[in-house]
Amino acid sequence: MAEDLYREVILDHYKNPRGHGVMEDADAQAEGVNPLCGDEVSIYVQFADDGETLEEVKFSGRGCAISQASTSMLMEMVVGKTASEIAGLPKEALLEEVGIPLTPVRLKCALLGLGVLKVALHRAKGTPLPDEWAGLDELELT
Amino acid sequence: MAEDLYREVILDHYKNPRGHGVMEDADAQAEGVNPLCGDEVSIYVQFADDGETLEEVKFSGRGCAISQASTSMLMEMVVGKTASEIAGLPKEALLEEVGIPLTPVRLKCALLGLGVLKVALHRAKGTPLPDEWAGLDELELT
Amino acid sequence: MVVTARTSLDAQKLRADFPIFEQEIHGKPLAYLDSAVTSQKPRQVLDAMRDFYETSNANVHRGVYTLSERATEAFEGARQKVADFVNAPDVREVIFTRQATEALNLVAYAWGLNNLGPGDLVVVTELEHHSNFVPWQYMAEKTGAGFRMLHVNEDGELDLSGLDEAARDGNVKVVAANLVSNALGTINPIEKLAAWAHAQGAIMVVDGAQAAPHHPVDVQALGCDFFALSAHKMCGPTGVGALWGRREILEAMEPFNLGGHMISKVRYESTTWGELPHKFEAGTSPIAEAVGLGAAIDYLNEVGIEAIEAHEQELAAVALERLGEIEGVTLYGPPADRRAGIVSFNVEGIHPHDVAQVLDSEGVAIRAGHHCCQPLMTRLAVAATNRASFYLYSVPEEIDRLVEGVQKTRKIFG
Amino acid sequence: MVVTARTSLDAQKLRADFPIFEQEIHGKPLAYLDSAVTSQKPRQVLDAMRDFYETSNANVHRGVYTLSERATEAFEGARQKVADFVNAPDVREVIFTRQATEALNLVAYAWGLNNLGPGDLVVVTELEHHSNFVPWQYMAEKTGAGFRMLHVNEDGELDLSGLDEAARDGNVKVVAANLVSNALGTINPIEKLAAWAHAQGAIMVVDGAQAAPHHPVDVQALGCDFFALSAHKMCGPTGVGALWGRREILEAMEPFNLGGHMISKVRYESTTWGELPHKFEAGTSPIAEAVGLGAAIDYLNEVGIEAIEAHEQELAAVALERLGEIEGVTLYGPPADRRAGIVSFNVEGIHPHDVAQVLDSEGVAIRAGHHCCQPLMTRLAVAATNRASFYLYSVPEEIDRLVEGVQKTRKIFG
Ligand SMILES: Cc1ncc(COP(=O)(O)O)c(C=O)c1O
Ligand SMILES: Cc1ncc(COP(=O)(O)O)c(C=O)c1O
Questions:
Q1: Ligand nearest to the CA of D36
Q2: Residues 6+ apart with CB under 8 A from A24
Q3: Are C391 and C39 in contact (CB under 8 A)?
Q4: Which residues of chain D lie closer than 8 angstroms to B137, CB-CB?
């Protein structure tokens, strides 16, 4: 049973996170904490010359396999997309990638990175931050 | 059943309270309220020349049959006694006079007058006011 | 023949849901006419709580394991039921408290203490229960704000013409009123009070403790900013109540109780608060009790709040008429068609405690006292009243027994 | 042959009192190792509450009628049980609250807000649960008082040598500490802290939430001024807790929540407070919950608190040893002979949430998180730990399953 919870791809992203690191002089940046588990994620974005397209993204942080793997997967998903595309990215798209059943508590872990990224873009570009992200009600998006 | 609750003597004291009235220039005085029922009793004492013996007592107030009748009975009991005798008067003595079974709530009604009298004597003569009267914990003895 | 199409309920049948009626008091069946103070509980509610403890008991929100998920689902499900019950726009606006009293204190402390000051005014009504009176009186004193009371007329209804006078001496910041008075059954015009409050720039705080069990509630239609209720008066357990508050206000507010769960980050240097509703729910919540409240709401919805209200008003009308026929009985409050299922009265020359005591010996439970409304008692110039109050399980025979009991009391004291 | 004469309990037999163990989780029997967060409830407690609702439900103190008298007797009887349980000198010193958190807030608000000011200091410990940390931090900030934290050493035990340094910068007015740490199981030297506090003229506030369920409590021997506990951690229901406070202090204090029941006289002009304990119990109390707490205390007394503590310490010692043998496992807290039945640990490279998730799939419920002790987590330089905690119904096989689960987690993440 427990084996199904952590598919190989999750464990792989957890152990070998993509885009892991810190970016100096990022164009957009935010960090978030899931105070329930202590998951922490910081996300850094560098835009392409059009000032819209995400050219490079990095994340740092620590936390459970779900939060770190899903953020790693997110990094792969978003490069090359525009800020407004990501603002409109439904959480289901990420959850599909993650691909394991998640209880409400773990859902917050899985969506931490996406929430932080949306906040970073909202701050840098004024992209909308719909109310549903406030629904991640335990997140402190600072 | 209900008939047993209100013995003839209680009803008699209630309808014809002994010592009912107000005393100007009383030597000792106090009033008390039972905030649960709104029973109110004021007691006035005049001492004999020895400054110790209760020569005259009066009470005024309003409230339920138990509180008013028991205070009326108390008036008859205490005339001629000294302040320290009354300070030492156990509540059981009054309750025996009242002579009906009382639930904890009604007990507070029945003992209101005695509490007020003890406070009046305590103030005027410094007679002891043992902790058990604080046990009438809903009483505001002002 | 015309049949009036109106929702109705079968109180005699509903009684079977309430185990308490299976006993006798002093050899007589229990006639419980004190539902305004606390209601009896149907089996459905007791079962829901027991089932929670036996299958799902765990702390909420924090556990990764199955029991805790189940508990969280049950608890948050109850929150949704409360939100729907009062027509809250957002479930996060519903905060679980101990009871209505604590809900009102939450507002008085977390909003009042931080927003009131000299030159400001708090306006309450003469009909208030101490729980919506004393917190405001206290906060006014603590902060230097003024405290004003809106009076009632002879019928025990608010005299709204006094509002502008109340506002004369300062800046009205809070208007606090109950929707239904527990002492007289008066139904207050909250919509008008709220409109007036908002015109003054004040918040409107509604004590819904006596309304929620008996009267359809729509916080949006009322136009209020806060609404408080208690589970134990609406077929639910003791130990839980709820506060609904307008989101913007709740978000801008300081927290009340502090501790576990209501925080985001705790550092030696400083602490940041969690999101709604958690910010206001410090410590372990009354979890099983919230589940019980949810089950009570299900029960009330099934019976139908409108049907409950109509049933109670019918009983109150009969009681008013029958008691009014007894010599020496004074009735308080508005006419039958403008009141909830509450009947307050006095019997000449007989203290309410004595009336209630005689009634108890006949198995009839009514309230005798100031009903936590001393300012109103002062206005009525009485120390106390007798009060009979009805609920969905009340039946007309209980009114017969009430009337007979009052007559008997008069005979004993006659 | 020598038989050691020591009270002991038969956990396997006691389990039969707890209906929750009759179920399976993911096809496995439930191993509930999260009792530090909330305990499971024995049938005896659930029955007592149900019986109350079915036979005696009414509001307390105010009713003249039979049901209300019965309810009052049950409720005040529960207060007496709490008083005896903590060896309070006077039953009126016991105040029912929602939980330990609210009990501590009561002190922080009603005492702290009115007695602290610039130049004063509040001292808490690094081991505090947020519920005995944040209220003091907040009140210090509100009143301008200073806020100091007593640190722990490597073993997670308080370093009392830091006390005088804490006192250097001001007038210590409050010392707040738990008797048993929920994060590490540390048992704190309250007697010493209280003596030091009193020497400074400070009050000693003890968070007993984690102690009361597992450890004999004598507030007089501890020498503290306040002691807080939660029913739900000690086989009782959610929704109720208790504060014990020293009578002179309680009497001199302002009230906390305001409203019905806690008053003496309410007038438009001013209000006077009721006597202890009512002054601190505004509104309808958690009546059935208090009755449940009383039944829980009866249950604990029957089993024997000393036997419970010995049983848990035995389990903790085994768990520490077995977990310590697993590669990559770090244990936190004091040695087995100086701690309560709580075991906090981490597994190298695996986040506690992942450990707990794998364990849940094996039917083993443990806690993963900061345990509402973020300042301590900062000190330990971890975001979270795994925590297994035991109670009277915990059995050694559950430790086997815990150990196997940890090993399995390591394999998955290996
Ligand atoms: C030491 C300690 N203090 C306080 C609390 C808070 O308890 P409650 O949430 O019941 O108020 C807990 C419970 O987690 C605890 O373990
Ligand atoms: C109108 C009103 N407000 C407030 C209260 C207080 O309710 P609780 O004691 O449940 O907080 C009551 C109950 O008596 C009430 O009738």
A1: 1
A2: none
A3: yes
A4: 92, 274-276, 278
CB D20 within 8 A of CB D30: yes
| Chain-chain contact of C284 with D230 (C-beta, under 8 angstroms) | yes
pLDDT at D251: 97
pLDDT, tens digit (0-9, with 9 covering 90-100), for D230-278: 999 999 999 999 999 999 999 999 999 999 999 888 999 999 999 999 9
Mean pLDDT to the nearest integer, D110-120: 98
For B37, the closest of C353, C361, C412 (CB atoms) is C353
Average pLDDT, chain D: 96
Confidence band, pLDDT 50/70/90 cuts, at residue D7: low
Asked if C314 contacts D265 with a C-beta cutoff of 8 angstroms, the reply is: no
**pLDDT, tens digit (0-9, with 9 covering 90-100), for A47-62:** 999 999 999 999 999 8
Amino acid, res. C286: P
As a whole number, mean pLDDT of residues B39-46 equals 93
Q: Which chain C residues are closer than 8 Å to A35 by Cβ?
A: 263-265, 274
Round the CA-based radius of gyration of chain A to a whole number and report it: 14
Q: What pTM value is reported for the model?
A: 0.95
Q: Looking at residue C5, what is its pLDDT?
A: 44
- The tokens for A122 are 């909202």
Main-chain dihedrals φ then ψ at residue B46, nearest 5 degrees: -120, 130
Which residue has tokens 């409108």? C306
CA distance C295 to C234: 10
Give the list of residues 6+ apart from residue C190 with CB closer than 8 angstroms, or none: C177, C179, C204, C206, C222, C223, C224
Any idea which architecture C11-32+304-413 has in CATH? Alpha-Beta Complex (3.90)
User: If pLDDT is split at 50, 70 and 90, which confidence band does B33 have?
Assistant: confident
Beta partners for D343? D388
Residues of D marked as catalytic: 372
Q: CATH code for B2-141?
A: 3.90.1010.10
Asked if C364 and C409 touch (Cβ cutoff 8 Å), the reply is: no
Q: pLDDT tens digit string along B66-122?
A: 999 999 999 999 999 999 999 999 999 999 999 988 888 888 899 999 999 999 999
| Residue to substitute in D35, D101, D180 for testing ligand 1 pocket (most ligand atoms within 8 angstroms of CB) | D101
D351 and A63 in contact by Cβ < 8 A? yes
Q: Sorting pLDDT into bands at 50, 70 and 90, what band is C204?
A: very high
Which tokens sit at C370? Answer: 């100031």
Distance in angstroms (rounded) separating the CA atoms of residues D134 and B99: 55
Query: Could you read off the pLDDT of B60-79 as tens digits, one per residue?
Result: 998 899 999 999 999 999 99
Q: Which of C275, C276, C278, C280 to mutate to test the interface with A (most CBs of A within 10 A)?
A: C275
How is chain C split into domains, by residue range? 11-32+304-413, 47-301
SS3 (DSSP) at C356: helix
Q: At what angle do helices B104-125 and C352-361 cross, to 10 degrees?
A: 150
Ligand 1 atom with the shortest distance to the CA of D101: 11
C94 — phi, psi (to 5°)?
Answer: -100, 120
Q: What residues form DSSP beta bridges with C244?
A: C94, C227
Residue owning the nearest CA to atom 5 of ligand 2: C209
Q: List, for residues A77-103, the tens digit of each pLDDT value.
A: 999 999 999 999 999 999 999 998 888
Q: Which residues of B touch C357 (CB under 8 A)?
A: 2, 5, 106
Report CB contact under 8 Å: C283, D62.
no
Q: Which helix (H) or strand (E) holds D171?
A: strand D171-178
Q: What is the ipTM of this complex?
A: 0.93
Q: Pocket around ligand 1: residues whose beta carbon is below 6 Å from it? A: C 260, 283-284; D 36-37, 99-101, 129, 131-132, 178, 182, 207, 209-210, 230, 232, 372
**Residue for token pair 């009628």:** D65
CATH number of C47-301: 3.40.640.10
Kindly tell me the number of DSSP H helices and DSSP E strands found in chain B: 6, 4
For residue C227, what is the enclosing H or E element? strand C226-230
